């Protein structure tokens, strides 16, 4: 090898290293991500039997795309919330049901993504399923979207019930025809959960829980199903959000005043490799 070739290769190597160190690549960005406090855990490490269908890692949500900050389909919660959910699961398994979580800890960057989407009034790609009767200009005023979410504090989750043995839920196919989230269960997207009267993340008054409004449209088995979920979780310290039958927060919260922004990923947790 000539001296000229050696020098040329050295220059190329140096230039490549310089580009790598200055480019805003995902590897460099990942290295600067914040980490979760030590009391945050993966729900699966506390109770591997709880079904997880993490919607915001997929395009099947009201935005229509993967949400910022969701890198892996895992549920992360504060340990007290996860352990309380484990106790609820033990009770429900004896009755032939399993809990299923749609969302748990939510980073602030994901909430920011929701806000940007809500401000873009031209983007109504998923309106037909998730908010057919709501004008998008009303999302903030009606409380469906906010700049802060209790999910970011780590003790809040979105949850439902599945009758055992659990049937698989088919994958959502982007571009498929959308059916309103409040349509009869046999017509809306085929979620394997029991009938709660609406699908998850349904922006409609039908999603309000019984403590908020005695909507006469929620009766019979739908009402009983909501009460089973609500009664089980509330007996173990969870508090329901009146506007959403699926939304529960474990009290007292471990971090009642802190909104975290670490990504939803195993690497965010203490001791993760």
TrEMBL record:
The signal peptide stretch is 1-28
Instruction: Provide any one GO MF term from the record.
Output: zinc ion binding
Q: Which UniProt keywords apply?
A: Cell wall biogenesis/degradation, Dipeptidase, Hydrolase, Metal-binding, Metalloprotease, Protease, Signal, Zinc
GO biological process entries: cell wall organization; proteolysis
Q: What is its EC number?
A: 3.4.13.22
Annotated positions for site Transition state stabilizer:
106
Pfam families (alphabetical): Peptidase_M15
Q: Per the annotation, how and in what number is the cofactor bound? A: Binds 1 zinc ion per subunit.
Active site as annotated? 244 (proton donor/acceptor)
Catalysis: reaction(s): D-alanyl-D-alanine + H2O = 2 D-alanine
Q: Where does Zn(2+) bind?
A: 151, 158, 247
Tell me the protein family, please: Belongs to the peptidase M15D family.
Function (record text): Catalyzes hydrolysis of the D-alanyl-D-alanine dipeptide.
Protein name, entry field: D-alanyl-D-alanine dipeptidase
Species of origin = Streptomyces tuirus
Q: Where is the organism placed in the taxonomic lineage, from the top? A: Bacteria, Bacillati, Actinomycetota, Actinomycetes, Kitasatosporales
């Amino acid at each position: 090898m000539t001296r000229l070739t050696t020098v040329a290769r050295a220059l190329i190597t140096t230039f490549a290293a310089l580009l790598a160190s200055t480019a805003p690549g995902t590897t460099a960005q990942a290295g600067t991500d914040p980490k979760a406090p030590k009391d945050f855990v993966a729900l699966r490490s506390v109770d591997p039997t709880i079904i997880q269908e993490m919607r915001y890692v997929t395009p099947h949500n009201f935005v229509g795309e993967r949400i910022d900050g969701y890198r892996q389909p895992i549920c992360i919660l504060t340990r007290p919330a996860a352990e309380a959910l484990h106790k609820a699961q033990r009770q429900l398994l004896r009755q032939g049901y399993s809990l299923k979580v749609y969302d748990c800890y939510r980073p602030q960057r994901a909430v920011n993504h929701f806000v940007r989407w809500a401000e873009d009034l031209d983007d109504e790609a998923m309106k037909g399923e998730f908010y057919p009767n709501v004008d998008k200009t009303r999302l903030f005023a009606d409380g469906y979207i906010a700049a802060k979410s209790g999910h970011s504090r780590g003790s809040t989750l979105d949850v439902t019930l599945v009758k055992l043995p659990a049937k698989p839920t088919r994958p959502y196919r982007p571009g498929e025809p959308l059916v309103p989230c409040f349509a009869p269960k046999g017509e809306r997207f085929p979620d394997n959960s029991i009938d709660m009267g609406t699908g998850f993340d349904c922006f409609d008054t039908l999603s309000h829980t019984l403590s908020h409004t005695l909507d006469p449209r929620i009766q019979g088995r739908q009402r009983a199903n909501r009460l089973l979920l609500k009664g089980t979780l509330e007996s173990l310290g969870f508090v329901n959000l009146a506007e959403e039958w699926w939304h529960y927060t474990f009290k007292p919260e471990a971090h009642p005043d802190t909104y975290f922004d670490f990504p939803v990923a195993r690497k965010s947790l203490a001791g993760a490799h």
